[in-house]
Amino acid sequence: MTNIRLINLFIAALFCALNASAASLPKKKYPGGKCYIWRYTLEDKRESSYTLDRPQRWLSHKSIERRHKQGLPLDSTDLPVSSGYLKAIEHMIADANRSTKRSQTESMIIGTSRWNNTVLVRSADTTFLRRLGEQAYVKRSEMVWEAPDSIERMIKIKANYNFNSWDSLKGVPYGHGREQIEMLNGHRLHNIGFRGKGITIAVLDGGFQNCNCIPTFQHANISGIKDFVYPNSPSFYQETDHGTKVLSTMAANEPEVLIGTAPDAHYWLLRCEDQETEQPVEEDYWAMAAEFADSLGADIVTSSLGYNEYDNRPGYYRQRDLDGHTALISRTASMLAQKGMVLVNSAGNSGMGPWKKITFPADADNSLTVGALNQQRVNAPFSGVGPTQDQRVKPDLMALGSPACLISGRGAVIRDMGTSFSTPIVAGLVACLWQALPGKNALEIIQLIREQSDAYDKPDNVYGFGVPNFWRAYMIGRLTNDK
User: Fold this and answer.
1) CA distance 336 to 342
2) Which of these, 26, 273, 323, 417, could form a disulfide with 206 (CB 3.0-4.6 Å)?
3) Which domain holds residue 43?
4) What is the DSSP string of 215-280?
């Protein structure tokens, strides 16, 4: 009891410190004035110039091959949003902009989702936005973002180019990351050469501070970056370091300091979390990032993001909505396995608050939701619990996250707490396992990992199926391949 109370007090003090720090940052008036983003769900995909027999027009060769290898056919959700409807919207926008005062922000399309058949439109003119929602080809419309009055001024953070002498653990190859990989028996996959080579992981996060200059990442296989947040950051690598920490648990390769769980994998860094506000449009950004990951041929999506409440929108979601399909973000997440990808998503850190449960999209079907354990393999009190509204086991897995060893945006070795970090630790080992068992499809990999977790026969709402054993998953998976 004493240890749990101490942990609770520590977490509460940490959250208070973070909130106090955020409150003290300098502010500036939101650039461009008051404007809004509305989401329009279209009726269908008629009047389109795209056809399912020519997917190479919008999907990469790697994406098409991934589906072909897993026997997954294309369907109507894969088709881009109707080019005919987009042209109609663009004509309406052009007419609206011609009558707009120069002091106002011009209207424009800022994104689409082919899986959800939606379009995002930004404008300062709410009359125009409502009129657009009345068009025959629009099924539903909703305001999903409102410009804040002010935002924080960006403060550039310099990175360290060398580790401190005490960061090195002589004679310990994995350095400070030893416990988090050994808890999952993943080091044994590394020992026989499976370190994620040939696997592409898309990291969906809010920022990757200094990943372009921290020496640790200079030798990582970072294939590319993309920003889905409106407006795009003027300095992609100076946003929050949350994604930097996440990436380090997988991609770091610093012997005796920190070796991540998939140092040989390839990574795409996709920014889809807006740090300035918490609004429903972030679900759209996440969906656009997930679809982009699909189109470039990613094998795994790791996401340490979760939502359950939004600014000035009390009651937007209820716990009964945790069914994997009500929230746009969860509905999108539930489609990843159908496209041949494995989603590894954090359970969320709401366990100590009034919500307590997992957050969206941790309720997604056919995904691996990860909670956090402490070093004694006891669940962290902040880790979100299940089950889903339709009584599926959640979280699926547990891993070290209270605390985990990471590299911060300053390039320093630190320990931090959250399901945000237990999640990529697992995602990296999913990459290693899939490298070792390339004949498996996404659903088979997901089920294999669940089945080789230590509570598979007696899952509950706190630990899910328990702690996965990736070495045993490999051994069992290899046996089934040989049959």
Assistant:
1) 7
2) 273
3) 36-151
4) GGGTTSEEEEEEE-SSSPPSSGGGS-SHHHHHHHHHH-EETTTEE-S-TTSEEEEEE---SS---T
Q: Is residue 19 part of a domain?
A: no
Of 37, 137, 132, give the one whose Cα is nearest residue 85: 137
List the structure tokens of 195.
Answer: 């370190």
Structural domain total, the chain:
2
Residue 137 falls within a domain, yes or no?
yes
Residue type, 35: C
pTM of the model: 0.94
User: What is residue 12's predicted lDDT score, i.e. its pLDDT?
Assistant: 44
Residues 343 and 424 in one domain: yes
Residues 163 and 228 in one domain: yes
Q: Are 93 and 121 in contact (CB under 8 A)?
A: yes
Confidence of residue 400 (pLDDT cuts 50, 70, 90): very high
- Residue written as tokens 């190479």? 56
Cα distances from 192 to residues 189, 357, 433, 471, 474, in angstroms, run 6, 38, 11, 11, 11
- Give residue-wise pLDDT tens across range 270-303: 999 999 999 999 999 999 999 999 999 999 999 9
Residue type, 278: E
Q: What is the spatial distance between Cα 190 and Cα 255, in angstroms, rounded to a whole number? A: 13
CATH of the domain at 419: 3.40.50.200
- Which two structure tokens, joined as six digits, stand for 332? 């999108």
